[in-house]
Amino acid sequence: xxxxxxxxxxxxxxxxxxxxxxxxxxxxxSQQQAESLSHQKNESDQKLHELSNQLxxxxxxxxxxxxxxxxxxxxxxxxxxxxxxxETIEKKLICEKNVLNEIxxxxxxxxxxxxxxxxxxxxxxxLISSEQQLAATTLATRPSSASGRPSSRGSIASASSSxxxxxxxxxxxFPGVADRKISGASKSPNYTSFSDLSKQTIELTEPHRDRGGxxxxxxxxxxxxxxxxxxxxxQADVWEGAEPLVQSAIDGHKVCMFAYGQTSSGKxxxxxxxxxxxxxxxxxxxxLFASKKEIERSFAGNVSVSIKVELLxxxxxxxxxxxxAEAGPKGQKIKIRLNSNEAVNNVVVEASxxxxxxxxxxxxxxxxxxxxxxxxxxxxxxxxxxxxxxxxSSLTNEEMNRQGVLHIVDLAGSERLDKSGSQGxxxxxxxxxNTSLSALSHVIQKLQEKSEHIPYRD
Length: 458
Known about the structure:
alpha+beta; three-stranded antiparallel β-sheet; 16% strand
């Protein structure tokens, strides 16, 4: 029994020892866990400290940002107030500008009326190459003195090109005001416009003719015009004289400009020009679109401006629409009806840019009737009527609605049949051209005379 008890005690001791080892292992694990948790706690404390510092820094930055935002809000508020004041002043200035523009329109129209609703400009173009050759030949055959002796061959060879260019200056003289006080003192009624100091003047001298040794007797004519452009004046000078008339069209008036002269005198060049030397039509179109942009900007969308273009051709007393699909001398004829002195049933193009008008003009030029004569290798055989309608429409004030019309007419050139050598179709064209130009000059003359009857139907 003692052995049994001893065995039981030993078993109990073994169990206790086993339990003790297990408890030691648990204790070791617990200590490790405690050390790990302590380490984690230290790391957490460190992170918490770092986050606390970051929070403090962010709080400082936030306060600074709130101060900056408050300052910016104050500045924004001040700028908004300034913008409101500026907009108020701008609206006031725009209203004053519009009022002043209406006053300018009235005064401009009065100036145009005072200077004459009908005015005549004259332009003397430079000599072309063929004329320079003719001038050189004339210079070579001219006697060197009143005795009638011809110039020696050596003197002919030494004639400079500047002398050839001076041939034109011998025929055309452009006296100033001081010169007119002397040379224009004649009481002849033919010199009335020449003596008018409000006019610009030109003096024409008959070209030199060989009189067989006699003293040269060269006739002189003196004329006065509203403006005179000499060969030195360029396209910009001509535009400067015509620009006030284009402004009248923008202001809502009807304006018409003619290029009138004999064939090869440079009418088409003056009216249309080329890419380097632009004529009146391209410059007028540029001004119209610039005015359209300025007007629409000034009224902040309350006013719209439309620009419409028409191109007609009068050929042999018949009217053609150069914008028609079948345009040209052999194309479709327009059945003209008069409605308030306007042609109807023709194509009207509303243009949105200057390039569109230029394209339309180039197309019309290609369709226009041009032929060669002895006087001009590219003679326009028809009258070109370029019409632009400048229409202003207001959404708020109907009294501002207006329509200006600008007619720019490149007339066919008059010609002498014996010099142009026109025959057949060219002869028929020349007769119609000369007849229509004579009728036009008669109308202008009656308008200047303020006659009761104006022969428009001619």
